[in-house]
Each structure stands twice: as structure tokens, then as C-alpha cells.
Amino acid sequence: MNLMNDIADRLKSVFMKTFSLTAEQLPDRLEQEFIEQWDSLGHLQLIMAIEQEFGLRFNSEKIPKLTSLAKIIEEIPYASQL
Amino acid sequence: MKIALLSSYTVDFLPKETDKFLNGFNLTAEWHVAPFNQYRQEILNPNSDVHRFQPQIILLSVDVDDIFSAPQEFMDLLKTASENFSGSTILVHNFSFSRNEPMKLLEWNSPESRQFLVNQINSRLSESAMSLPNVFVLDYAGLIKEIGAETFFDKRYYYLAKAPFSAAGNQKIAQQFATAIATVVGKRKKCLVLDLDNTLWGGIVGEDGIENIQLSNDGLGKAFYDFQKNIDKLYKNGVILALCSKNEPSIALAALREHPYMILREEKFSAIYVNWLDKAENLRSIAKELNIGLDSMVFLDDSEHERALVRESLPEVFVPDLPQDATDYPDFIARLDCFEALSITAEDQERGKLYAQERKRVELQKSSKTFEEFLNSLNIVVAIKTADNFSIPRVAQLTQKTNQFNFTTRRYTDGDITTLLKNDKYKILYISAKDRLGDSGIVGVAIIENNGRKARLDTFLISCRVLGRGIEQAFLGTIFKQLANSGVDLLEIEFTPTAKNKIASDFLEKQHFERADFGWVVPSSLDIFPRWVTLESYE
Fold this sequence. Notes:
Strand order of the largest sheet of chain A: 1-2
Radius of gyration of chain B: 30 Å
Oligomer: heterodimer
CATH superfamily of the largest domain in chain B: SGNH hydrolase
CATH superfamily of chain A: ACP-like
CATH class of chain A: Mainly Alpha
Distance between the termini of chain B: 65 Å
Shape of chain A: globular
Largest sheet of chain A: 2 strands, antiparallel
Strand content of chain A: under 5%
Order of helices and strands of chain A: HHEHE
Structural class of chain A: mainly alpha
Shape of chain B: elongated
């Protein structure tokens, strides 16, 4: 449980850095449709930043589907480690 | 500053990355990124957004596949760009493949080879750029070579979004852009300030002698020779050279003048500060003498202490870390990238010489509060102990190797030291020193002969790499105190002048001790222990 919280927190700070948002500005539901800056380009930036933060590499087929915090957390264990 | 970025790739990440590096040059940019693959229209259409934006600098990065079938069209486009944006500087990437070719062995051996053709295109690109006054080539192919295509590209982003670069690749390009932009707006560094011992040559000239320093056209000495050669290239392209070295001026200058493999001779230096003063003070004097800003100076020194001192006292000066291994020096200076130029004028090429001709030695003032503050911040801790079986080899070695800060230059073998230790009248002490930057180990030796109310200092030496931090005073001061405690009133400091130990006599002169025919005489009650040094242990 603690580990999951830790991953969520780290992801949130990547979201904040990538989209230049404060903690207060993060929407409750971290999904693509609720963050204006999370467009197709923002998506690549976000994925790149997450891969750097966690030292992993998502499969190219999965990348377009990682459209929410929950989906990203779910996919992390399946990503290959760098 | 307005910068436009035109590309056939998705490069929208690059401005943010480039801004990070521009920060380091104190530059900020306003960006215009043309839409994906619109570079042709943006250049040709006089009403395009890029035209209205009126950029100072245009960055152009195009995939080789985009121009491969019609390279001449791209050259023509460049010419048009040069004319349509005559007030802008245009920086264009050369070309390289982002993917591997099948039939590798055939590459370079067939006229159909893509590698071969790309090389031809790159040559034509450089020719075009050289014929256009405001167009310059940035070496994209070289960037890939530096970190390898595997690291530079990420095929997932390429196929998903036409963004071919990995995070590392983006970094590399951003750094290149920033360096080029800084060069365009004249933020290049002007002056390279160099240390001598273990920087321009291997070894310590004052200790080893001119004929024994490492500098040659063969073996490890060639690393220093090649390093000097690269620095000479900078000099010939307008970089001003200066010397800042703790050394005996006569010996250092003799090395510069007489060593057969010295490339950087005395006349190439615009300012020469070879003395035993604080290097930050010397750098300030160099800036003043040459009338250049501290922020246009780069300081190279093998000593971590000197680098830390300069970084702390003069944050404007760029102080890169020299590699640990001298064989990396030549590449290191080649990769420093802070003396870049896009073109070279005749004046640039003469600049180093002009400064050098104007050089005049300025008598330097002794240093200031800031130096003492630096020493304080070092947290220097010394330990002074009687030589024992473990330390005898190092103690004997120091008596044999130390030439500069050595009062009598008496050489002792391990056996001599052992014999002296058995003699009750003799005391053999060593000092070890450490500070927050590291442990220097045993750095000094003293041999004292006790004769009742008087004592004779038979040997006193300090390794030159720790000189000037108060360790010499701490050692001598502790000896005074110890003698006073054991009822000795006077210490006779023997001194034998040699060709190399002038720094030691200078030190003694400055202490205002009483002269005697054999050296100096000092009452043991004198307190010269420096405030910024801590005595950790004493036996």
C-alpha cells in the first residue's frame, strides 16, 4: 500500500513538472480530458518524463493508452526496466 | 532575443530544453516553433508567421529523408532563406541517418550507398553555408556520433509522433543550440587561464627539474603535448591565454622558454602570474590587466583546492574540473565548447598576440580578507606525530624528494631515520593534514636536535602541494610550543639556500625572526599558529 502511494506521489510530481501545475491545480481525477496541457505533444513529454523518473520503458503499443494516472500505475509493473 | 525553430521533425520539446542551457549563459529567448514540416512554406512565403516574427536566429533541422532525392532544392532554399532573412543568423543542421542500413558492408563501397551520398550532401551544405554570409552549419551528425545512435534516438516516439529523439538526444541538441546561440550573440569566453604543474606538463618543475617534467612527443608526455597543441589552436583563433601558477618564476619561465616540446611559449601568454599568492587575487589582477570581465574567463587547474578557492571567491569565472587522468586532457579541452566561434576574423587571429605584446608585469598586492575567509571555510585539521615504523618510509621519502619548501635539503634514508629515532637528543616529527576537500596524508617533516636550553632545527620541509594554507606555520608553531613546554628557550633554524628553496627563505624572511649566520633564531615563546587551522592531535 505504501509502495503504491509512493508511486502515485512520484507520478503526481512528474505531472506537475511536465504541465507546469501546482499541487492545487492538479484535478482530482488525473485523466487526459481534465488537464488542458495534456494534448498529444504533452502526452509524449509526460511519458518521457515518467520513463526518466522511474528508469523504465513502456511498450510503444501501450504508450497511446496511458491516458490516466490509474492506467499508468497499472502499466508500470509491465514496463521493461532500463 | 527572438529564435525561430523550423524542422521536419516534431521538435516542440526543444525550446524548453534549450532554455535550460541558455540560462547558463544568462540568456532568455522568445521562441517561435513553426508547425511540423512547414519549413519550406515558412521560408518562401513572405507573409509567413516566421517572417512576421522577425527572428534574430533561425534554427533549421531537417530529416535527411526529406531532402535526399533533391538535395539541390534544399541548397536553393537555404540561399533564399539567407536573402529573405538577411538580418537573421541561420543555423542549419547537417545530415545523418536515424536508422541503420541493411547491407552494411556495401556502405562506403558502392556509388549507390546512402552513407556515401549523405556525406556528399553534407559537403555541399558546408560549401553553400560558406558562400552565404549569414548561414552556418551545426554538426548534427557529430552529435549522434558522440553519444551513439542507440542513445540518441528513440524509435517509439519517432513512429508514434515523428519525434525521433530520446530524452538524451533532445538534451544533446538543446546544448548545441544554446552554445551556438550564445556564440551568435557574442557570449563566448575570451580568456583561458592556466596552471602549470600537472596541467600544462606532468610533474612539478620546481621539484623535478625542467628536464624531468612530462612533456614530449612520445608516451604519456605526449598527452600534455597534445593538450598544449589544442590550447594553441584556441590561441590561434583569438583566445587570450594567461598563466596563474604557484611556482618559482625563474624556474617556470625557464621551462616555458627552454623545454624542447613546449608549444605554449612565454610570448603566447598575455598575462603571467607566477607567484605564491592566492589564485583568486591573481585572477582579479589578470582581468584588470587585460581589461576583460571575470565572466569571460575560464580557469584550468589540476588542484581541487585551487578550483574550489576560485569558484568560491569568483563565481563569475568558469572553472571546469580537469579530468583525473592527463590522457583525457586533450579531448577535454576539445569538448569544452566555451570558446566557440562561427567564423574567424583576422582580428580574432591576432588578438592573442596583441594582448601578449601589451603584457606588463604588475606588482601584486598581497591578498585580502577573502583569502582568509576561504582558508577558514576549508576546516583544515592537522595532526603532528613522532615518526614510527609505519611512517618512516614516507618521512625519508619526503626528505629525499622535497626541494622547494625545505630549509636544509638534508637527504635521509629509512636507515638514517631509524638511527636518529634511537638517539634521545633527536626528535623526528611529521605533520599530516586534511580538510573538507580531502585528506592529504603526511605532508611535512621536522627533525629537531635538543641541546638543553637551545634546540636546533636540523630539517624542516613541507610538500609544495599544500603550501600557502597555513600548514607550515601550524607545524612550526606547534614545535615552538612543544619546545617551550619542555624548557627550551631558543630554536635555531638552520637554513641552506639552494637553487630551488627560495620560497622557504621568503617564508622565513616574512616571519620577522632574528637572523643568524646559520639561518634564524627564534624564541620558543613565539605564537605563529594560524587561527584557521585546528590541531587534532599531537604527541
